[in-house]
UniProtKB/TrEMBL annotation:
The keyword Zinc-finger does not apply. Signal peptide: none annotated. PANTHER family: MITOGEN-ACTIVATED PROTEIN KINASE KINASE KINASE 20-RELATED, SERINE_THREONINE-PROTEIN KINASE NEKL-3. This is non-specific serine/threonine protein kinase.
Length: 382
């Protein structure tokens, strides 16, 4: 702003030095008048800029949906945006997921959004993210409120700290198996299990509490109801790095065993720091799942015991009938491993060391005194 004010004055001086007529005008009062006018303009512009910024902050502070005040945006994705929010009466922090405004006219997206809410809200397992509320604003923006999770998703943990010790992976996987078991018993297939959709959180003083989230691609597989298929015909759903062969080839309908494959691919990544298959394009990766042999985990990480490797490779069998048939079967196999247990003491120590990557103070401009500390981006693939 100051440069915009000074530039005309400097220009006038330079012109006055070259043109006598202009110089005479400047030094007989023209320059003083110009300075006064420009100073007034600059003051007005600066105040206007400050006022606009202030109004923007006030508008954001006042922005809310239902009984929730939005504090700051903490995540974004293909379906929507995620905000750190607070219930106006309970003063409870939560995460609010909004449908993207530019997607609001897409009926397919709205159906997916509602599907995610309804599917997740019907699950009560402690290792599934909890839904508090759901609705839409007068302007037509859809939203739902869910529990706010202090922690990191497993994708972030591996990216920042490297592969996880086997005992910790087993500890987290068994929790996810338990959450999946409830969903499968209700006839729901997740279809997008991946490290970014599993959160390791602190809940009630316990660390490494696994939370399964983002049921945006969930499929209702219950026989008494019509299947909810919200993707385009022929489209591959899920994430290419973790999708099952049958999803790629179309050989049979994806079922609970497809989730087992994706969980096995997730475990492979957690233990090795590498996905099962890599490629230059998503197409090459998904077809590798259907046609290429899996590289043994111990060739990448020799610390993995053969028994655990065998369990993960069974999850990654090409044919669904060769995998574990239920999440409970996978959990039981993991339980039988002769590994030392991952303890709460170890988990607490790990999170204490990692705190700098997880917790930070919320923006004082937006945060209320009652707010808990904000954490890293909530891993909801909006």
């Amino acid at each position: 702003m100051s440069l915009m004010v000074i530039s005309p004055i400097v220009g006038a001086f330079m012109t006055g030095m070259k043109v006598p007529a202009v110089s005479e005008v400047l030094y007989t009062g023209g320059l003083s008048e110009m300075i006064i006018l420009l100073s007034i303009a600059a003051s007005t512009a600066i105040y206007g800029s400050y006022r606009v910024g202030s109004l923007r902050r006030e508008a954001f502070d006042a922005k809310g949906v239902g009984m929730y005040t939005l504090r700051k945006q903490i995540g974004t994705g293909g379906m929507g945006e995620v905000y750190l929010a607070e219930h106006r009466l309970l003063k409870r922090p939560c995460a609010i997921k909004l449908i993207r405004r530019d997607k609001v006219d897409d009926e397919n997206i709205l159906l997916r959004f509602e599907s995610e809410v309804q599917a997740t809200a019907g699950l009560t397992h402690p290792n599934t993210i909890e839904i508090y509320d759901y609705g839409h604003t007068e302007e037509g923006t859809f939203y739902y409120a869910m529990e706010f999770l202090p922690g990191l998703n497993l994708q972030e943990i591996v990216e920042r700290f490297g592969e996880l010790p086997p005992e910790r992976v087993v500890y987290l996987l068994r929790q996810v198996c338990s959450a999946l078991a409830e969903a499968h018993h209700k006839g729901l297939i997740h279809r997008d299990i991946k490290p970014g959709n599993i959160f390791s959180a602190e809940r009630g003083g316990l660390y490494d509490v696994a939370k399964l989230l983002d049921f945006g691609l969930v499929k209702d597989n219950r026989p008494e109801k019509n299947s909810l298929e919200l993707t385009m015909e022929g489209a591959v759903v899920g994430s290419p790095l973790y999708t099952s062969p049958e999803v790629v080839t179309g050989d049979g309908e994806p079922d609970f065993r497809s989730d087992i494959y994706s969980l096995g691919a997730t475990a492979y990544y957690l233990l090795t720091g590498k996905p099962v298959f890599e490629g230059e394009s998503a197409l090459k990766v998904v077809f590798a799942h259907a046609s290429q042999a899996v590289k043994p985990l111990t060739e990448i990480n020799p610390k993995i015991c053969k028994e655990l490797e065998a369990i993960i490779l069974k999850c990654l069998e090409k044919k669904p009938e060769d995998r574990y048939q239920k999440a409970e079967e996978l959990s039981d196999a993991l339980k039988e491993l002769k590994l030392k247990e991952w303890t709460q003491e170890e988990a607490a120590e790990w999170w204490s060391d990692a705190e700098q990557f997880v917790q930070h103070e919320p923006d004082p401009e937006y945060a209320s005194e009652d707010h808990l500390k904000a954490t890293t981006i909530l891993p909801v693939n909006a």
